[in-house]
Amino acid sequence: MDVADEGMLRKFQKELNSGTVSLILLAILDRSTEPLYGYQIAKSIEGNWQEGAPVKQGTLYPVLRSMEESGLLGSRVEPSVSGPPRKYYTITDRGRAVLTDWMSAWSQTRDFVDATLEGRNHA
Amino acid sequence: MDVADEGMLRKFQKELNSGTVSLILLAILDRSTEPLYGYQIAKSIEGNWQEGAPVKQGTLYPVLRSMEESGLLGSRVEPSVSGPPRKYYTITDRGRAVLTDWMSAWSQTRDFVDATLEGRNHA
Fold first, then answer.
1. DSSP secondary structure letter of residue B59
2. What is the pTM of this model?
3. B18-53 pLDDT tens trace
4. Which phi and psi angles does B45 have, rounded to 5°?
5. How far is Cα A95 from Cα A71, in angstroms, rounded to an integer?
6. DSSP three-state, residue A80
7. Which residue of B98, B110, B123 is in closest CB contact with A47?
8. In chain B, what residues touch A115 (CB-CB under 8 Å)?
9. Is A6 exposed, middle or buried (0-12, 13-18, 19+ CB in 10 A)?
10. What structural domains and CATH numbers belong to chain A?
11. Which residues on B lie below 8 Å from A25 (Cβ)?
């Protein structure tokens, strides 16, 4: 892959991530039985994803903050014995409602893209 | 759905589309046996997609222009008997190379999001 094409791929991946990262964060916090801080969320995303997640840890923090400002997440800061205080996030009722909407928007867009790539909706 | 949640959903859909529209345009032009102008591409996207495509026709034109500037598409303007001249687009060799890269980035991201939503990669 030449350098210019690599740049185009990075831009494309970034665009794909701009929507999907928020969706993933809501889903992880919805499923968690306890509040999670950034590093735990990053580890949960990586999980046993062998090939390396397409989402970098550093990109999560501004998204978490923005989702809290939008009322989708709540947070609580707690001291840590091993370093600076940690900000623990939980999903709000509004976050749960939005997650439901976004999951169906995601399914529809995913199926739409796959159908177009496979030529099934070619007129 | 309340008004604020509708606004969040529109923003989310717009973010999802920001990557996927370029991918869809490349795929349609790659598959086409002849140059296509904007309206034909829009029709091809809608195809027999019953529920209404998540992509609006007006959003395609700036993306087509930007992809031409990046060398992924070529174009030729031709007069039309029924209105203003039409700009016909074709995919370039570079566009084909980029399409291959983007299709695998799409598959990886799609599988990653689906796995996260289903909790398969939860640590």
1. G
2. 0.88
3. 889 999 999 999 999 999 999 899 888 877 455 566
4. -65, -45
5. 7
6. strand
7. B123
8. 49
9. exposed
10. 3-118 (1.10.10.10)
11. none
Encode pLDDT of B71-107 as tens digits: 999 999 999 888 899 999 999 999 999 999 999 999 9
* Tokens matching residue B50: 């019953």
| Chain A: closest CA distance from residue B79 (Å) | 24
Task: Tell me the one-letter amino acid at B80.
Answer: S
Which residues of B are less than 8 Å from A22 in CB distance? 12, 15
pLDDT, chain B, mean: 88
The 10s digit of each residue's pLDDT in A9-47 is: 999 999 999 889 999 999 999 999 999 999 899 888 877
Pick among A6, A44, A121 to test the B interface (most B CBs inside 10 A): A121
What is the rounded CA–CA span in Å between residue A37 and residue A84?
12
Q: What is the ipTM of this complex?
A: 0.88
The structure tokens listed for B111 are: 């599988």
Buried b (16+ CB within 10 A) or exposed e, B70-104: bebbbeeeeeeeeeeebbbbebbebbeebbebbbe
